[in-house]
From TrEMBL:
Pathway: Cofactor biosynthesis; pyrroloquinoline quinone biosynthesis. It comes from the Bacteria. This is Pyrroloquinoline-quinone synthase. GO terms for molecular function: pyrroloquinoline-quinone synthase activity.
Length: 247
């Protein structure tokens, strides 16, 4: 029996359609943030919770690399960890995120401690790390393909923050500017790899499901932020406005 898997162009179009329908650029919290309607409490809540995602990205990439038997794949993948951790002197994305934290008036040590992160943020992000650790390599790689859609949202964010919030300046938005070149580099390689290797119907289904799962990881974090800080239903143990401020 022949496998009627769609050609790579059709498969790529399917992946892009998942982003068009489900990526978190469509979430009302992002419209509010980029449109300048967030209060500073809401901005601080976003920075604290999104920190947890940032902090776990290099850990999920290390989990991925621990499973790669191919040195060439590890060589390429390790630049993702370097982008976030950087060198001791200059740092990387993690340090740039903490500059944003300071810029919005938060104590960077408080943010880096992870205290105050909402349970739903933890559950969503931890699920992503576990997915990449446990699922087949094609699915693990495909789950990072949300980055196909990230440069557009980073561009909107830089523009929106600079237009609407006094804390926004080249230093506090540096995290997003760096991602404008880092993400396309990562995603060009990963998309090519997934298109070349997911040639059976089953692999294409698994890759599409992985990308869908990842859009849910991102969306769930913003739903939690909205419920907690826009609607004011802060879960027990989560950050409360006024805590963790820069002195
Ligand atoms: O601000 C965003 O909307 C956004 C989204 C995503 C994404 O699509 O997963 C990432 C990032 N930023 C990001 O900064 C980042 O380093 C990153 C790494 C990954 C990944 O899955 O490996 N996604 C993302």
């Amino acid at each position: 029996m022949t496998d009627q898997s769609p050609n790579p162009q059709a498969f790529e179009a399917r992946l892009r359609q998942i982003g068009a329908e489900r990526y978190h650029d469509r979430h009302p919290f992002h419209h509010r943030l980029h449109g300048g309607q967030c209060s500073m409490d809401e901005v601080q809540a976003w920075v604290i919770n999104r920190w947890y995602y940032q902090s776990r990205i290099p850990m999920k990439d290390a989990a991925f690399m621990s499973r790669c038997t191919d040195p060439q794949l590890r060589r390429i993948w390790r630049s993702r960890i370097e982008d976030h951790d950087g060198g001791e002197a200059e740092g990387g994305g993690i340090r740039r995120w903490l500059k944003l934290a300071e810029g919005v008036g938060l104590d960077p040590d408080y943010v880096a401690s992870g205290r105050g992160v909402m349970p739903a943020t933890r559950f969503a992000v931890d699920a992503y790390v576990r997915f990449v650790r446990d699922e087949p390599l094609i699915a693990a790689m495909a789950s990072s393909l949300t980055e196909l859609f990230a440069p557009a949202i980073h561009g909107q964010r830089i523009e929106g923050l600079l237009a609407h919030y006094p804390f926004a300046n080249p230093e506090t938005t540096a995290y997003f500017r760096h991602r404008l070149t880092e993400a396309p580099k990562d995603v060009a390689f990963t998309l090519r790899w997934v298109l070349d290797h997911a040639t059976s119907r089953a692999d294409q289904e698994a890759a599409a499901a992985a990308l869908t799962f990842k859009t849910e990881v991102l969306w769930a974090q913003l739903d939690a932020l909205w419920h907690g800080y826009v609607e004011g239903s802060i879960p027990p143990g989560a950050w409360r406005p006024g805590e963790g401020q820069l002195r």
